[in-house]
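quick q for whoever's on today - can somebody do inverse folding on this one?? i tried earlier but teh output was garbage lol. tokens:
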């Protein structure tokens, strides 16, 4: 319902009251599920973050770091059957609505932290040390770039774009 309102009225033109009325709930009920309107496009973020964390943890130690990260990032972005349209609309809002970009920095920090913690555990470094933190930023960048390419129609398979980005980054680092 909220996405339909965003499509018709724009993100900025849609209020929490509009969303609550369309859903047949009160504003108080809305705030039991979302801290703000900005959290609606990020719905399910914590669950997807935990799925990514679990996928990373499930990789055996002999799995190369880049491959484990590729699998984790794909897991985070997986859309269920019939959810590709919702995934596309959600990403368009997150990546293209200025009001959401500032809010997204909080989500991106949590996302990067999962990658940094995994890389730190694999390399024996503290999670807040330079290389795990740098890897978190690099992987976030390639994830966002893959999503932008997907939205632009570069490839209908987001997982394939993520794979290409991770593989390309790994090759670049190996060559250096």
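ok took a stab at it. sequence:
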């Amino acid at each position: 319902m909220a996405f339909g309102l965003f499509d018709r009225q724009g993100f900025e033109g849609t209020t929490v009251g509009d969303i609550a009325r369309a859903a047949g709930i009160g504003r108080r009920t809305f705030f039991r599920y979302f801290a703000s309107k900005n959290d609606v496009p990020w719905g399910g973020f914590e669950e997807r973050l935990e799925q990514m964390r679990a996928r990373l943890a499930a990789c055996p130690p002999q799995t190369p770091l880049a491959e484990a990260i590729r699998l984790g990032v794909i897991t985070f972005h997986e859309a269920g059957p019939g959810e590709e349209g919702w995934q596309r609309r959600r990403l368009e809002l997150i990546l293209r609505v200025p009001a959401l970009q500032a809010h997204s920095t909080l989500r991106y920090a949590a996302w990067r932290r999962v990658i940094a913690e995994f890389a730190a555990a694999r390399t024996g470094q503290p999670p807040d040390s330079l290389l795990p933190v740098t890897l978190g930023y690099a992987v976030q960048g390639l994830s966002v770039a893959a999503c932008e390419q997907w939205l632009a129609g570069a490839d209908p398979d987001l997982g394939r774009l993520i794979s290409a980005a991770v593989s390309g980054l790994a090759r670049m680092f190996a060559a250096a």
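fwiw The longest helix spans residues 98-123. also The radius of gyration is 18 Å. so keep that in mind when u check it
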